[in-house]
Design brief:
Layout lengths: L14 H6 L1 H6 L16 H11 L10 H9 L1 H7 L8 E6 L5 H11 L6 E6 L16 E3 L16 H6 L1 H6 L8 E6 L3 E2 L1 H9 L8 E3 L5 H6 L11 E4 H17 L6 H12 L4 E2 L8 E3 L2 H5 L8 E2 L14 H14 L7 E6 L4 E6 L3 E5 L5 H5 L1 E2 L2 E3 L12 E2 L10 E12 L2 E9 L4 H4 L6 H4 L3 E7 L14 E5 L8 E7 L11
Parallel strand pairs: 1-2, 1-4, 2-3, 6-8, 14-16, 19-21
Antiparallel strand pairs: 4-7, 5-10, 6-7, 9-15, 11-12, 12-13, 13-17, 17-18, 18-19, 20-21
Helix pairs in contact: 11-12
The structure holds 2-acetamido-2-deoxy-beta-D-glucopyranose (NAG) (8 copies).
The site of one 2-acetamido-2-deoxy-beta-D-glucopyranose has 4 residues, from strand 18.
Amino acid sequence: MSCTRKTLHDHPFNLWKFLLSPTIKAIDVFSLTIKSTLALCSVASISLILYFAFSNYSHFPQPHINTVTNFNQNGSVSIEGREQTNISHILFGIGGSAKSWNKRRHYSQLWWKPKVTRGFVWLDKKPSSNMTWPETVPPYKVSQDTSRFKYSCWYGSRSAVRIARIVKESFELGLPNVRWFVMGDDDTVFFTDNLVSVLAKYDHNQMYYIGGNSESVEQDVTHSYTMAYGGGGFAISYPLAAELVKILDGCINRYDKFYGSDERIQACLSEIGVPVTKELGFHQLDIRRSPYGLLAAHPVAPLVSLHHLDYLESIFPNLTRIDSVKKLVSGYELDPGRILQHSFCYDLNRNWSVSVSWGYTVRLYPFLVTAKKLETAVETFRTWRSWDAGPFTFNTQPVSSDMCERPVVFMLDRVESVGGGKTLTGYKRYSTGKEEKDCPKYNYTSALAVQFFNVSAPKFNPDLWNKAPRRQCCEIINGTDGADNVVHVQIRGCKRFESVSPQ
Ligand SMILES: *[C@@H]1O[C@H](CO)[C@@H](O)[C@H](O)[C@H]1NC(C)=O
Ligand SMILES: *[C@@H]1O[C@H](CO)[C@@H](O)[C@H](O)[C@H]1NC(C)=O
Ligand SMILES: *[C@@H]1O[C@H](CO)[C@@H](O)[C@H](O)[C@H]1NC(C)=O
Ligand SMILES: *[C@@H]1O[C@H](CO)[C@@H](O)[C@H](O)[C@H]1NC(C)=O
Ligand SMILES: *[C@@H]1O[C@H](CO)[C@@H](O)[C@H](O)[C@H]1NC(C)=O
Ligand SMILES: *[C@@H]1O[C@H](CO)[C@@H](O)[C@H](O)[C@H]1NC(C)=O
Ligand SMILES: *[C@@H]1O[C@H](CO)[C@@H](O)[C@H](O)[C@H]1NC(C)=O
Ligand SMILES: *[C@@H]1O[C@H](CO)[C@@H](O)[C@H](O)[C@H]1NC(C)=O
C-alpha cells in the first residue's frame, strides 16, 4: 500500500532526469539549495522553506507542557506502568483499502488472534456488502474523508494522507488501556509475542516512536533514515500519540510533497522533537528476489514483522508464499523468541561448521568457517528500487561463485514440543541435485550424505531480551540411533568464556 515504494521501473519517467530538468529549477527557486537531495517529494526543506516564507508562523503548534508533566510525573501512572505490557495494551491500526483487502487479508489472518489482538483495518470506503468479515481478520473501520488535505507528490498516492491519519482516528476512538498504537500495512505480518517483548522494554508513559529503517540505502537516502518505515510497522506510545494527534492535521498540509504516510508521521514527530528508536526486528523488506540470506542472518533481536512478501520469492523454496509464512509461523508459535535466532558450532572431528537459523534453515560447511563470516548475510537479494547488489544498511557477502565454498542447505521440515520446556525442530536437505557434480575437487561426500538435522533447544526465555544481547551457543552431538544421515545439534546458552573459535 502506502509503503510500496515506487521503483524507477514502475514509472515511465526517469526520476533523476526529472529532478535535474530545467523546468523544475525554474518553478522552484529553492531547488538550488537542495541540489544534493535525491527525491523531490521527500524534501522537507522545500515545504518548510515555503512555509517560513509565506506564513506568519501562527499555525505552529503551541507547546503542551502540561500534557507531558501529567504523563510522566503522576505517581499512579508510573505504578500502573510497572505492570508488564501485554498484547491487550496494543491497538493496531492497519492501512488497507476496500479494493485490495481480499488480496491481502490472508496476511492479517496469519497473525490476528480473535478476542486477543485489538485494532482495526482502516479502509477508504465501505466494502461491498457481499464481502465477508470473519473474526479471523481485524474488524474494519472506514477512514474519514481526507479530500481537504493537500497532497502533491506526483509519483505517490494521496491515500498516504488517509493512512497517516489512522493513528489519530485510532486515538480518538478513546479505547481503554491502550499503551501503544501500532501501525502497519495490510501486507505486514506481525509476530505479536515478540512485538510485546520489544514494547515491554520501554516505559509506555514516556514518548516513544519505535520501528526500523529500510534495508536498501537508496530508500533511506530518498525517503529518510530518521523514520520508521510503515510497512515494517511502528509503535507510538500513548503520550506521544496524544501530542501527535493535536498537530497532525495541520502538519500533514505542511508536508504535502512527501511520498508516504510514514514520512508524514515522522515529519510531525520531528516537530515534537521525538526521534525514532530503532529496533532490529521490524522488517520493511525493501528488497527483491529471495529474502533467504537476510532471514538466515537475523540479528540478535526478536523477529517483530515481515513485509512486502508478495514482492519477494517465497521464503521456503518448495512452498507458495503464503504456505511459506505459515511454515515460519509454525516455528514461531512453538518458540516465539527463538524464531530465526542464529547459533554456530563446529565438529572438529570432521572439520564441519554448522550455522543454525532456528525455525528456518541450517547450513553445513564441510570446512571451518569463522563466526564473522557465518553471521554475515549472503546476498540472495537485491535493492528495492534499482535491483542492485547493494548497498544495504547491514553487511552482506556475495554468494560464492566457487561451488566448493557453498554450504549444504537444510530447510525447516517439522517442529515439535518435546516436554521439559524443550523443542525439537527438524531440517531437511534442500538439494539442487547438482552439488556433487559442481564440486568435484572438494570432499563434500560425507556432508552430502547428511539428509536431516535434528535441533533441540530449550524454549527461549523472553526475559533474555531485557538483558545484554548475546547469540546462543550450540554443539553437535552424536545420535543414539547410529544413523549417519541425521546430525543432532543442541542449542543452549553460552558458558562463561565460551566463544565460537575453531581450534
Ligand atoms: C495524578 O497526579 C495528580 C497531581 O499530581 C493527583 O492529584 C492525582 O490524584 C493523581 N492521579 C491519581 C489517579 O492518583
Ligand atoms: C494484561 O495486563 C492487564 C493489566 O494491565 C491485565 O488486566 C490483563 O489481564 C492482561 N492481559 C493478558 C492477556 O495478559
Ligand atoms: C461482490 O460483488 C461485486 C459486484 O457488486 C463483484 O464484483 C464481486 O466479485 C463480488 N465479490 C464476491 C466475493 O462475491
Ligand atoms: C581439519 O583441518 C585441519 C587444519 O585445517 C587439518 O589439519 C585436519 O587434518 C583436518 N581434519 C580432517 C578430518 O579433515
Ligand atoms: C522440493 O521439490 C522437489 C520437486 O518436487 C523435490 O525433489 C524436493 O525434494 C523438494 N525439496 C524439499 C526440501 O522438500
Ligand atoms: C574424502 O572422502 C573419502 C570418502 O568419503 C575419504 O576416504 C577421504 O579421506 C576424504 N578426504 C578428505 C581429504 O577428507
Ligand atoms: C530426528 O527426527 C526424526 C523425525 O522426527 C525422528 O524420527 C528421530 O527420532 C529424531 N532423532 C532423534 C535422535 O531424536
Ligand atoms: C561422534 O561420532 C564420531 C564418529 O561418527 C566420533 O568420531 C566422535 O568422537 C563422536 N563424538 C562424540 C562427542 O561422541
